[in-house]
Amino acid sequence: MSASPIDRPSKDAPSLKVLFVSPEATPFAKTGGLADVAGALPLELARLGHRVWLVIPRYGTIDGAAHGFKEWKRLTVPTASGPVKAVIEQGDLSCPQAPPDCQVSVLAVRYDPYFDRQGLYQESGIDYPDNLERFAFFCRAVMELLVLLGKTSASPPTLLHAHDWQTALCPVYLRTLYAGRPEVRGLRSLLTVHNLGYQGIFPAKVYPKTGLGPELFTPTTLEFFGSLNLLKGGLAFADFLTTVSPTYSREIQTAEFGFGLEGVIREQRDRLVGIVNGIDVEVWNPATDPVLPARYSVSDLTGKRVCKTELQREMKLPVRDVPLLAMVSRLTAQKGVDLVADILLELMELDLHITILGTGDPSDEARFRSFQARYPEKIGLRIGFDEDLAHRIEAGADMFLMPSRYEPCGLSQLYSLRYGTVPIVRRTGGLADTIVPYSPSAVREGRATGFAFDEATPEALLTAVLLALHVYENRNEWRSLIEAGMRTDTSWARSARSYADLYRRVAGGGLEAGTVSPK
Length: 519
Ligand code: ADP
Ligand code: GLC
What we know:
The chain has helices spanning 33-47, 112-115, 131-152, 169-175, 230-237, 246-251, 255-258, 262-267, 302-314, 337-348, 362-374, 387-396, 412-418, 429-434, 440-444, 458-472, 475-487, 493-507, and strands at 17-21, 51-57, 70-77, 84-94, 103-110, 122-123, 126-127, 159-163, 188-193, 201-202, 223-224, 227-229, 240-243, 272-274, 324-331, 353-360, 379-383, 399-402, 422-426, 451-453. It is of the alpha/beta class and 519 residues long. Adenosine-5'-diphosphate binds at residues 32-34, 36, 328-330, 357-359, 385-387, 390, 409-412.
């Protein structure tokens, strides 16, 4: 995926200077797909010749030595309860197989009382009670960092790209507490919504901890049915909004998917676009993946068969030539894991294996554990978070289940395509935008890459799985599905260009200062 010289900005398209701010990023800290996006998109932009900074919290769980983190600066961060001294550590994300000047500066905000914990946002399913203080502090630190870069760097960032509720206060602070600061004058902001189901809602009484004045606690800014809503603040103050697929950008304008913010989103729809995520095709490459027992490519799938038998061994299943279904997922209602649990008894009547890797809702975990205890010959289960095992499952399985109730983009189905594992998805959000569903004509034309169903019901999921199992018996059709999936371009190349075009519009031409102030 290295950029050719023509990918780099020409003289008339000067390179962009973008500061990404994200609560998680691979390879440093991850709970879900946001981390994969924040670890890969900055690299792809850097490959295109742009200057990119990535700012994350310096969680205690990050292996600082392995990632070369070193103290870079000390910052005094003003907060509602007084100044806090933070350390900014610096590391690099360098781009493999790319020009030597291609790198992303990683800056990590270190303040151990907030970030040296076992989890990122919660432990044992319970959110940290001081999440507002933690992420308001993080956003203030980012603003101070921008001021510092504005003072000291010859070429400071001109765009701030925030992600999800944890960083949504950055665009708010930029237009309010920092509005008069010359160091950040002209800085434009974007906010990407990766999942509208998580908004950062806190009781009104803790609002003063944001450090913002009472005039901003209104229904057009940060108030939401009497509570504080950080994402809503970001939606109001960012210069431009994006989400992670075109279908999801339309869905969130409806009551079914808007989680109460559909009205706000509808009002902002002229400055909202959906750009589908890519994946890091170097990290997720079955031809080179170091954690697989064997490697393979679309022209030689022998290694995939080895991956399947080794996966059966690893998951303590008998090594047999039966269809192997898989799920790797956060165990939450969003992902439709209850639909999978609801059809497990029917599936157990069939000659197949199913392997599940996930963690999340304790009741889902318990439900899968009890099924596994009852059917140890057919169900392989791992409760927990295991990145390497996720790769081996993507490689070893025949089919990947993603019956999400909603899915802003979804990365796992893209990993499945790349690893020749056929996704079975609910037609929603990014799943609708990235999977071409099976039909006899679509498979004949070599377009079909998976199976899709519409209703979020166990019956509809079961029907799709039964169809997939039927098609699996037809070796030619199955091979066509695998090949079409593996040949699909899932890389960041095209989407990174869409972001770069959008950044240009936001930074200059398309949107004039003042036209995007909160309504
Ligand atoms: P989301 O971000 O909503 O969880 P995505 O499909 O965008 O969904 O991304 C999920 C990412 O998290 C994928 O990289 C997937 O492999 C990974 N993942 C989810 N659960 C686990 C787990 N238990 N162990 C390892 N990786 C996981
Ligand atoms: C969120 C969404 C998921 C998306 C990911 C990265 O976690 O749930 O659909 O792929 O963000 O954008």
